Protein backbone atom coordinates (compact mmCIF):
# COMPACT_ATOMS: atom_id res chain seq x y z
CA UNK A 1 0.00 0.00 0.00
CA UNK A 2 3.05 2.20 -0.07
CA UNK A 3 3.32 4.98 -2.62
CA UNK A 4 5.92 3.47 -4.93
CA UNK A 5 8.38 5.14 -7.27
CA UNK A 6 6.34 3.61 -10.10
CA UNK A 7 3.37 5.71 -9.03
CA UNK A 8 5.40 8.89 -8.46
CA UNK A 9 7.10 8.51 -11.83
CA UNK A 10 3.74 8.91 -13.59
CA UNK A 11 3.54 12.53 -12.50
CA UNK A 12 5.53 15.74 -12.66
CA UNK A 13 5.22 17.94 -9.58
CA UNK A 14 7.57 20.78 -10.59
CA UNK A 15 5.96 23.21 -13.03
CA UNK A 16 7.51 22.84 -16.46
CA UNK A 17 6.95 25.59 -19.03
CA UNK A 18 7.35 23.35 -22.09
CA UNK A 19 4.94 20.61 -20.92
CA UNK A 20 2.90 19.35 -23.86
CA UNK A 21 -0.70 20.52 -23.49
CA UNK A 22 -3.57 18.05 -23.81
CA UNK A 23 -6.78 19.54 -25.21
CA UNK A 24 -9.97 17.63 -24.44
CA UNK A 25 -12.45 18.47 -27.20
CA UNK A 26 -16.20 17.82 -27.22
CA UNK A 27 -17.70 17.07 -30.64
CA UNK A 28 -19.96 20.10 -30.37
CA UNK A 29 -16.95 22.37 -29.67
CA UNK A 30 -14.86 21.02 -32.55
CA UNK A 31 -15.48 23.84 -35.03
CA UNK A 32 -14.89 26.73 -32.63
CA UNK A 33 -11.85 24.99 -31.19
CA UNK A 34 -10.33 24.40 -34.66
CA UNK A 35 -10.66 28.13 -35.37
CA UNK A 36 -8.12 28.87 -32.64
CA UNK A 37 -5.45 26.61 -34.12
CA UNK A 38 -2.81 27.39 -36.71
CA UNK A 39 -3.24 26.24 -40.31
CA UNK A 40 -0.40 23.76 -39.80
CA UNK A 41 -2.13 22.23 -36.78
CA UNK A 42 -5.49 22.06 -38.54
CA UNK A 43 -3.91 20.28 -41.50
CA UNK A 44 -2.43 17.62 -39.23
CA UNK A 45 -5.81 17.06 -37.62
CA UNK A 46 -7.53 16.84 -41.00
CA UNK A 47 -4.93 14.36 -42.21
CA UNK A 48 -5.76 12.16 -39.21
CA UNK A 49 -9.50 12.71 -39.68
CA UNK A 50 -9.92 14.00 -36.11
CA UNK A 51 -13.67 14.19 -35.33
CA UNK A 52 -13.40 14.76 -31.54
CA UNK A 53 -15.15 11.47 -30.98
CA UNK A 54 -14.63 9.62 -27.75
CA UNK A 55 -11.39 7.62 -27.73
CA UNK A 56 -9.62 9.59 -30.48
CA UNK A 57 -6.12 10.83 -29.70
CA UNK A 58 -3.87 12.79 -32.06
CA UNK A 59 -0.40 14.11 -31.27
CA UNK A 60 0.40 17.30 -33.22
CA UNK A 61 4.00 18.03 -34.06
CA UNK A 62 5.82 21.32 -34.50
CA UNK A 63 7.74 22.16 -37.68
CA UNK A 64 10.73 20.22 -36.32
CA UNK A 65 8.61 17.11 -35.94
CA UNK A 66 8.55 17.23 -32.13
CA UNK A 67 5.36 16.44 -30.22
CA UNK A 68 3.83 19.80 -29.35
CA UNK A 69 0.16 19.32 -28.63
CA UNK A 70 -2.20 16.46 -27.84
CA UNK A 71 -5.81 16.53 -29.00
CA UNK A 72 -8.24 14.03 -27.54
CA UNK A 73 -11.85 13.58 -28.50
CA UNK A 74 -14.42 13.56 -25.72
CA UNK A 75 -17.50 12.84 -27.85
CA UNK A 76 -20.73 14.11 -26.33
CA UNK A 77 -19.56 14.19 -22.72
CA UNK A 78 -16.20 14.64 -21.04
CA UNK A 79 -15.10 11.50 -19.14
CA UNK A 80 -12.07 11.69 -16.86
CA UNK A 81 -11.57 7.92 -17.15
CA UNK A 82 -10.23 8.41 -20.67
CA UNK A 83 -6.94 9.58 -19.10
CA UNK A 84 -6.48 5.92 -18.13
CA UNK A 85 -5.97 5.18 -21.84
CA UNK A 86 -3.76 8.23 -22.60
CA UNK A 87 -1.09 7.18 -20.12
CA UNK A 88 -0.64 4.04 -22.24
CA UNK A 89 -0.95 5.69 -25.66
CA UNK A 90 1.26 8.75 -25.27
CA UNK A 91 5.01 8.69 -25.89
CA UNK A 92 7.43 9.62 -23.10
CA UNK A 93 7.24 13.28 -22.18
CA UNK A 94 5.64 15.71 -19.76
CA UNK A 95 2.01 16.60 -20.40
CA UNK A 96 -0.41 19.05 -18.85
CA UNK A 97 -4.18 19.37 -19.06
CA UNK A 98 -5.55 22.39 -20.90
CA UNK A 99 -8.94 23.93 -20.15
CA UNK A 100 -10.00 21.28 -17.67
CA UNK A 101 -12.11 22.36 -14.70
CA UNK A 102 -10.08 22.46 -11.49
CA UNK A 103 -12.20 19.91 -9.62
CA UNK A 104 -11.87 17.47 -12.52
CA UNK A 105 -8.09 17.55 -12.65
CA UNK A 106 -7.84 15.32 -9.57
CA UNK A 107 -10.02 12.72 -11.28
CA UNK A 108 -8.13 12.89 -14.57
CA UNK A 109 -4.91 12.40 -12.61
CA UNK A 110 -6.47 9.49 -10.72
CA UNK A 111 -7.51 7.79 -13.97
CA UNK A 112 -4.03 8.45 -15.41
CA UNK A 113 -2.48 6.71 -12.40
CA UNK A 114 -4.94 3.81 -12.41
CA UNK A 115 -4.50 3.28 -16.15
CA UNK A 116 -0.83 2.53 -15.61
CA UNK A 117 -1.57 -0.38 -13.24
CA UNK A 118 -0.10 -3.74 -14.21
CA UNK A 119 -0.35 -6.93 -12.16
CA UNK A 120 3.26 -7.91 -12.58
CA UNK A 121 3.84 -10.44 -9.79
CA UNK A 122 4.14 -13.42 -12.14
CA UNK A 123 4.71 -11.85 -15.54
CA UNK A 124 7.29 -9.23 -16.19
CA UNK A 125 5.50 -7.03 -18.64
CA UNK A 126 6.83 -3.82 -20.06
CA UNK A 127 5.97 -0.72 -18.08
CA UNK A 128 4.15 2.26 -19.50
CA UNK A 129 6.04 4.55 -21.85
CA UNK A 130 7.24 7.19 -19.42
CA UNK A 131 4.55 9.78 -20.07
CA UNK A 132 4.17 12.07 -17.05
CA UNK A 133 1.21 14.21 -16.16
CA UNK A 134 2.11 17.60 -14.72
CA UNK A 135 0.01 18.37 -11.65
CA UNK A 136 -1.05 21.92 -10.78
CA UNK A 137 0.70 23.07 -7.60
CA UNK A 138 -2.54 23.45 -5.65
CA UNK A 139 -3.47 19.79 -6.19
CA UNK A 140 -3.15 17.61 -3.07
CA UNK A 141 -0.72 15.18 -4.65
CA UNK A 142 -0.13 13.26 -1.42
CA UNK A 143 -3.83 12.43 -1.20
CA UNK A 144 -3.77 11.47 -4.88
CA UNK A 145 -0.76 9.16 -4.52
CA UNK A 146 -2.14 7.52 -1.38
CA UNK A 147 -5.43 6.88 -3.14
CA UNK A 148 -3.75 5.38 -6.21
CA UNK A 149 -1.56 3.20 -3.99
CA UNK A 150 -4.62 2.01 -2.04
CA UNK A 151 -6.41 1.00 -5.23
CA UNK A 152 -3.31 -0.75 -6.59
CA UNK A 153 -3.17 -2.64 -3.29
CA UNK A 154 -6.82 -3.73 -3.55
CA UNK A 155 -6.19 -4.94 -7.10
CA UNK A 156 -2.99 -6.77 -6.16
CA UNK A 157 -4.62 -8.49 -3.18
CA UNK A 158 -7.54 -9.68 -5.30
CA UNK A 159 -5.49 -10.60 -8.37
CA UNK A 160 -3.03 -12.69 -6.40
CA UNK A 161 -4.03 -16.35 -6.78
CA UNK A 162 -5.42 -18.09 -3.70
CA UNK A 163 -2.29 -20.20 -3.23
CA UNK A 164 -0.36 -17.00 -2.47
CA UNK A 165 -3.19 -15.10 -0.75
CA UNK A 166 -4.42 -17.43 1.96
CA UNK A 167 -5.55 -16.32 5.46
CA UNK A 168 -1.97 -16.16 6.75
CA UNK A 169 -0.98 -13.96 3.80
CA UNK A 170 -3.89 -11.61 4.49
CA UNK A 171 -2.70 -11.51 8.09
CA UNK A 172 0.81 -10.56 6.93
CA UNK A 173 -0.65 -7.77 4.78
CA UNK A 174 -2.70 -6.50 7.73
CA UNK A 175 0.38 -6.57 9.99
CA UNK A 176 2.39 -4.61 7.43
CA UNK A 177 -0.38 -2.03 7.31
CA UNK A 178 -0.53 -1.87 11.10
CA UNK A 179 3.22 -1.36 11.33
CA UNK A 180 3.11 1.50 8.87
CA UNK A 181 0.54 3.33 11.00
CA UNK A 182 1.60 2.19 14.46
CA UNK A 183 -1.63 0.25 14.86
CA UNK A 184 -2.02 -3.07 16.69
CA UNK A 185 -2.81 -6.23 14.78
CA UNK A 186 -3.45 -9.71 16.06
CA UNK A 187 -5.23 -12.82 14.90
CA UNK A 188 -7.04 -15.77 16.40
CA UNK A 189 -5.93 -18.79 14.39
CA UNK A 190 -7.21 -22.32 13.77
CA UNK A 191 -8.74 -24.26 16.66
CA UNK A 192 -8.22 -21.27 18.98
CA UNK A 193 -11.25 -19.81 17.21
CA UNK A 194 -13.36 -22.35 19.10
CA UNK A 195 -11.99 -21.37 22.51
CA UNK A 196 -12.48 -17.68 21.71
CA UNK A 197 -16.03 -18.34 20.51
CA UNK A 198 -15.87 -17.80 16.75
CA UNK A 199 -17.59 -21.10 15.90
CA UNK A 200 -18.93 -20.07 12.49
CA UNK A 201 -15.53 -18.84 11.24
CA UNK A 202 -14.06 -22.14 12.42
CA UNK A 203 -16.79 -24.28 10.84
CA UNK A 204 -16.39 -22.69 7.41
CA UNK A 205 -12.58 -22.68 7.53
CA UNK A 206 -11.89 -26.07 9.12
CA UNK A 207 -12.00 -28.05 5.86
CA UNK A 208 -8.87 -26.37 4.55
CA UNK A 209 -5.27 -27.18 5.47
CA UNK A 210 -4.86 -23.39 5.65
CA UNK A 211 -5.94 -22.34 9.14
CA UNK A 212 -8.85 -19.94 9.39
CA UNK A 213 -7.99 -16.56 10.97
CA UNK A 214 -9.91 -13.80 12.68
CA UNK A 215 -7.75 -10.75 12.01
CA UNK A 216 -8.20 -7.78 14.33
CA UNK A 217 -6.50 -4.43 13.67
CA UNK A 218 -6.96 -1.44 15.98
CA UNK A 219 -5.79 2.13 15.70
CA UNK A 220 -6.46 5.59 17.05
CA UNK A 221 -7.49 7.46 20.14
CA UNK A 222 -10.00 5.59 22.30
CA UNK A 223 -11.87 8.86 22.98
CA UNK A 224 -12.78 9.24 19.32
CA UNK A 225 -15.95 7.73 17.83
CA UNK A 226 -15.57 4.05 17.05
CA UNK A 227 -15.54 3.07 13.39
CA UNK A 228 -15.41 -0.65 12.62
CA UNK A 229 -14.73 -2.11 9.16
CA UNK A 230 -15.46 -5.76 8.46
CA UNK A 231 -14.36 -7.56 5.29
CA UNK A 232 -15.28 -10.96 3.91
CA UNK A 233 -11.98 -12.79 3.60
CA UNK A 234 -12.84 -16.00 1.76
CA UNK A 235 -9.46 -16.58 0.18
CA UNK A 236 -10.93 -19.21 -2.10
CA UNK A 237 -14.55 -20.21 -2.46
CA UNK A 238 -14.92 -23.68 -3.97
CA UNK A 239 -18.51 -23.63 -2.70
CA UNK A 240 -17.53 -26.30 -0.18
CA UNK A 241 -19.36 -29.65 -0.46
CA UNK A 242 -22.01 -27.78 -2.47
CA UNK A 243 -19.21 -27.52 -5.00
CA UNK A 244 -19.35 -24.75 -7.58
CA UNK A 245 -19.08 -25.53 -11.29
CA UNK A 246 -15.79 -24.76 -12.99
CA UNK A 247 -16.99 -21.54 -14.58
CA UNK A 248 -18.32 -20.19 -11.29
CA UNK A 249 -15.21 -21.21 -9.37
CA UNK A 250 -12.70 -19.78 -11.82
CA UNK A 251 -12.63 -16.25 -10.37
CA UNK A 252 -13.19 -17.21 -6.73
CA UNK A 253 -9.72 -16.06 -5.65
CA UNK A 254 -11.53 -12.71 -5.54
CA UNK A 255 -13.80 -13.80 -2.68
CA UNK A 256 -11.54 -11.94 -0.24
CA UNK A 257 -12.31 -8.70 -2.11
CA UNK A 258 -14.29 -7.42 0.88
CA UNK A 259 -11.25 -7.90 3.12
CA UNK A 260 -9.09 -6.05 0.58
CA UNK A 261 -11.53 -3.14 0.68
CA UNK A 262 -11.65 -3.02 4.49
CA UNK A 263 -7.84 -2.93 4.63
CA UNK A 264 -7.50 -0.29 1.92
CA UNK A 265 -10.17 1.91 3.48
CA UNK A 266 -8.38 1.54 6.81
CA UNK A 267 -5.18 2.66 5.10
CA UNK A 268 -6.93 5.79 3.81
CA UNK A 269 -8.49 6.54 7.21
CA UNK A 270 -5.14 6.17 8.99
CA UNK A 271 -3.12 8.02 6.32
CA UNK A 272 -5.49 10.98 6.64
CA UNK A 273 -5.55 10.61 10.41
CA UNK A 274 -9.32 10.81 10.65
CA UNK A 275 -10.34 11.36 14.28
CA UNK A 276 -11.79 7.90 14.83
CA UNK A 277 -10.95 4.86 16.89
CA UNK A 278 -10.63 2.39 14.03
CA UNK A 279 -11.08 -1.35 14.17
CA UNK A 280 -10.80 -3.75 11.24
CA UNK A 281 -12.15 -7.27 11.64
CA UNK A 282 -11.43 -9.82 8.93
CA UNK A 283 -12.65 -13.37 9.14
CA UNK A 284 -10.29 -15.10 6.70
CA UNK A 285 -10.88 -18.68 5.54
CA UNK A 286 -10.67 -21.00 2.60
CA UNK A 287 -14.05 -22.58 1.82
CA UNK A 288 -12.59 -25.95 0.83
CA UNK A 289 -13.78 -29.52 0.42
CA UNK A 290 -12.27 -32.29 2.52
CA UNK A 291 -13.30 -34.90 5.07
CA UNK A 292 -13.05 -32.07 7.63
CA UNK A 293 -15.41 -29.76 5.77
CA UNK A 294 -18.73 -28.64 7.21
CA UNK A 295 -21.70 -30.19 5.44
CA UNK A 296 -25.07 -29.29 3.99
CA UNK A 297 -27.61 -30.07 6.69
CA UNK A 298 -25.20 -29.44 9.60
CA UNK A 299 -26.31 -27.07 12.34
CA UNK A 300 -23.51 -24.76 13.41
CA UNK A 301 -23.24 -22.34 16.30
CA UNK A 302 -22.46 -18.66 16.04
CA UNK A 303 -20.80 -16.17 18.36
CA UNK A 304 -24.18 -14.53 18.90
CA UNK A 305 -25.61 -17.77 20.27
CA UNK A 306 -27.93 -18.32 17.33
CA UNK A 307 -27.81 -21.76 15.72
CA UNK A 308 -27.72 -21.89 11.92
CA UNK A 309 -28.78 -24.76 9.70
CA UNK A 310 -26.46 -24.97 6.72
CA UNK A 311 -28.75 -25.15 3.71
CA UNK A 312 -25.83 -24.61 1.37
CA UNK A 313 -22.10 -24.59 2.12
CA UNK A 314 -21.63 -22.09 -0.70
CA UNK A 315 -23.43 -19.44 1.37
CA UNK A 316 -20.32 -19.28 3.57
CA UNK A 317 -19.57 -15.56 3.54
CA UNK A 318 -22.60 -14.64 5.67
CA UNK A 319 -21.59 -17.27 8.26
CA UNK A 320 -18.11 -15.91 8.88
CA UNK A 321 -19.39 -12.32 8.72
CA UNK A 322 -22.04 -13.14 11.34
CA UNK A 323 -19.36 -13.85 13.94
CA UNK A 324 -17.33 -10.79 12.98
CA UNK A 325 -20.38 -8.51 13.09
CA UNK A 326 -21.33 -9.85 16.52
CA UNK A 327 -17.87 -8.97 17.80
CA UNK A 328 -17.95 -5.59 16.04
CA UNK A 329 -21.26 -4.69 17.60
CA UNK A 330 -20.24 -5.75 21.11
CA UNK A 331 -18.21 -2.53 21.37
CA UNK A 332 -21.18 -0.38 20.43
CA UNK A 333 -19.41 1.43 17.56
CA UNK A 334 -20.57 4.73 16.11
CA UNK A 335 -20.62 3.06 12.68
CA UNK A 336 -19.84 -0.35 11.26
CA UNK A 337 -19.36 -1.08 7.60
CA UNK A 338 -18.92 -4.48 6.04
CA UNK A 339 -17.70 -5.23 2.52
CA UNK A 340 -18.39 -8.58 0.90
CA UNK A 341 -18.48 -10.37 -2.44
CA UNK A 342 -21.53 -11.95 -0.88
CA UNK A 343 -23.96 -13.05 -3.59
CA UNK A 344 -24.15 -13.83 -7.26
CA UNK A 345 -27.67 -12.40 -7.02
CA UNK A 346 -26.33 -8.88 -6.45
CA UNK A 347 -24.40 -9.12 -9.71
CA UNK A 348 -27.45 -10.40 -11.53
CA UNK A 349 -29.53 -7.50 -10.22
CA UNK A 350 -27.03 -4.65 -10.70
CA UNK A 351 -24.41 -5.98 -13.10
CA UNK A 352 -20.77 -6.28 -12.15
CA UNK A 353 -19.84 -2.59 -12.01
CA UNK A 354 -22.41 -1.27 -9.56
CA UNK A 355 -22.04 -2.14 -5.88
CA UNK A 356 -25.15 -2.42 -3.70
CA UNK A 357 -25.35 -1.14 -0.16
CA UNK A 358 -27.87 -1.82 2.58
CA UNK A 359 -28.45 0.24 5.69
CA UNK A 360 -31.21 0.73 8.23
CA UNK A 361 -30.47 4.45 8.29
CA UNK A 362 -32.28 6.61 5.72
CA UNK A 363 -29.99 9.60 6.29
CA UNK A 364 -26.92 7.47 5.58
CA UNK A 365 -28.66 6.09 2.50
CA UNK A 366 -29.31 9.51 0.97
CA UNK A 367 -25.84 10.73 2.01
CA UNK A 368 -24.20 7.77 0.25
CA UNK A 369 -26.21 8.38 -2.92
CA UNK A 370 -24.96 11.96 -2.87
CA UNK A 371 -21.33 11.01 -2.15
CA UNK A 372 -21.41 8.32 -4.85
CA UNK A 373 -22.29 11.01 -7.34
CA UNK A 374 -19.80 13.64 -6.13
CA UNK A 375 -16.93 11.16 -5.82
CA UNK A 376 -17.72 9.59 -9.24
CA UNK A 377 -17.66 6.20 -7.56
CA UNK A 378 -21.03 4.57 -8.13
CA UNK A 379 -23.08 2.51 -5.66
CA UNK A 380 -26.80 2.17 -5.16
CA UNK A 381 -29.07 1.11 -2.28
CA UNK A 382 -30.94 -2.16 -1.94
CA UNK A 383 -33.58 -2.61 0.75
CA UNK A 384 -33.49 -4.58 4.00
CA UNK A 385 -36.95 -5.77 3.02
CA UNK A 386 -38.41 -7.21 6.23
CA UNK A 387 -41.27 -9.19 4.58
CA UNK A 388 -38.59 -11.59 3.30
CA UNK A 389 -37.09 -12.10 6.73
CA UNK A 390 -39.05 -15.32 7.30
CA UNK A 391 -37.37 -16.83 4.22
CA UNK A 392 -34.55 -17.62 6.66
CA UNK A 393 -36.76 -19.83 8.85
CA UNK A 394 -35.40 -23.27 9.68
CA UNK A 395 -37.31 -26.20 11.18
CA UNK A 396 -34.41 -27.34 13.33
CA UNK A 397 -32.29 -24.26 14.04
CA UNK A 398 -32.76 -20.56 14.86
CA UNK A 399 -32.25 -19.72 11.20
CA UNK A 400 -31.00 -21.12 7.90
CA UNK A 401 -28.09 -19.70 5.93
CA UNK A 402 -30.16 -19.71 2.74
CA UNK A 403 -33.72 -18.92 1.82
CA UNK A 404 -35.95 -21.93 2.50
CA UNK A 405 -38.87 -20.39 0.63
CA UNK A 406 -37.84 -18.65 -2.56
CA UNK A 407 -35.00 -18.72 -5.07
CA UNK A 408 -35.32 -14.98 -5.66
CA UNK A 409 -34.05 -11.83 -3.97
CA UNK A 410 -30.81 -13.53 -2.94
CA UNK A 411 -28.84 -10.34 -2.19
CA UNK A 412 -31.64 -9.07 0.06
CA UNK A 413 -31.98 -12.40 1.85
CA UNK A 414 -28.22 -12.49 2.47
CA UNK A 415 -28.34 -8.94 3.87
CA UNK A 416 -31.28 -9.89 6.11
CA UNK A 417 -29.24 -12.86 7.35
CA UNK A 418 -26.43 -10.49 8.36
CA UNK A 419 -29.03 -8.17 9.88
CA UNK A 420 -29.98 -10.92 12.35
CA UNK A 421 -26.54 -10.38 13.89
CA UNK A 422 -26.77 -6.57 13.99
CA UNK A 423 -28.97 -5.13 16.72
CA UNK A 424 -28.81 -1.47 15.69
CA UNK A 425 -29.22 -1.36 11.91
CA UNK A 426 -29.11 2.45 11.89
CA UNK A 427 -25.35 2.28 12.53
CA UNK A 428 -24.61 -0.34 9.92
CA UNK A 429 -23.76 -0.30 6.21
CA UNK A 430 -23.41 -3.54 4.28
CA UNK A 431 -21.82 -3.64 0.82
CA UNK A 432 -22.43 -6.51 -1.58
CA UNK A 433 -20.36 -6.15 -4.75
CA UNK A 434 -18.28 -8.02 -7.30
CA UNK A 435 -14.88 -6.29 -6.77
CA UNK A 436 -13.96 -7.42 -10.27
CA UNK A 437 -13.81 -5.86 -13.75
CA UNK A 438 -15.20 -8.32 -16.26
CA UNK A 439 -14.15 -6.17 -19.21
CA UNK A 440 -11.32 -3.71 -19.69
CA UNK A 441 -12.22 -0.03 -19.72
CA UNK A 442 -9.85 2.96 -19.65
CA UNK A 443 -8.19 3.01 -16.22
CA UNK A 444 -9.90 -0.24 -15.24
CA UNK A 445 -8.16 -3.42 -16.44
CA UNK A 446 -9.78 -6.85 -16.25
CA UNK A 447 -9.41 -8.33 -12.77
CA UNK A 448 -9.68 -7.19 -9.16
CA UNK A 449 -11.07 -3.72 -8.66
CA UNK A 450 -11.71 -1.27 -5.84
CA UNK A 451 -15.40 -0.36 -5.86
CA UNK A 452 -17.06 2.18 -3.56
CA UNK A 453 -13.70 2.73 -1.87
CA UNK A 454 -13.43 6.39 -2.89
CA UNK A 455 -17.09 6.84 -2.11
CA UNK A 456 -16.71 5.46 1.40
CA UNK A 457 -13.57 7.42 2.15
CA UNK A 458 -15.27 10.63 0.99
CA UNK A 459 -18.24 9.78 3.21
CA UNK A 460 -16.06 9.07 6.25
CA UNK A 461 -14.06 12.25 5.68
CA UNK A 462 -17.31 14.20 5.58
CA UNK A 463 -18.68 12.46 8.64
CA UNK A 464 -15.62 12.66 10.86
CA UNK A 465 -13.48 15.59 9.75
CA UNK A 466 -14.00 18.51 12.07
N1 LIG B 1 -18.75 -15.73 -3.22
C1 LIG B 1 -20.05 -16.13 -3.62
C2 LIG B 1 -20.83 -14.99 -4.27
C3 LIG B 1 -20.36 -14.50 -5.60
C4 LIG B 1 -20.51 -15.28 -6.72
C5 LIG B 1 -19.83 -13.24 -5.71
C6 LIG B 1 -20.10 -14.81 -7.94
C7 LIG B 1 -19.42 -12.77 -6.92
C8 LIG B 1 -19.56 -13.56 -8.05
C9 LIG B 1 -20.87 -16.59 -2.43
O1 LIG B 1 -20.16 -17.20 -1.42
C10 LIG B 1 -21.87 -17.58 -2.95
O2 LIG B 1 -21.46 -18.55 -3.51
N2 LIG B 1 -23.14 -17.27 -2.78
C11 LIG B 1 -24.18 -18.09 -3.27
C12 LIG B 1 -25.27 -18.13 -2.22
C13 LIG B 1 -26.34 -19.14 -2.48
C14 LIG B 1 -25.79 -20.53 -2.27
C15 LIG B 1 -27.49 -18.88 -1.52
C16 LIG B 1 -24.71 -17.49 -4.56
O3 LIG B 1 -24.78 -16.28 -4.67
O4 LIG B 1 -25.02 -18.27 -5.48
ZN1 LIG C 1 -19.92 -19.28 -1.67
ZN1 LIG D 1 -18.16 -16.63 -1.22
Question: What does this 3D model show about the protein?
Answer:
With 466 residues, this protein is of the alpha/beta class. It has helices at residues 5-8, 30-35, 39-47, 83-89, 102-115, 141-159, 167-180, 192-195, 199-205, 246-249, 257-271, 317-330, 344-350, 362-374, 410-419, 453-464, and strands spanning 11-12, 20-26, 57-61, 67-75, 93-98, 131-134, 184-189, 213-219, 226-231, 233-237, 277-287, 299-301, 307-309, 335-340, 356-359, 380-381, 399-400, 428-432, 436-437, 447-448. The strands form four sheets. Strands 7, 8, 9, 10, 11, 14, 15, 16 and 18 form a nine-stranded mixed sheet that branches. The relative contact order is 0.12. The mean pLDDT is 96. The site of one zinc ion has 5 residues, from β10.
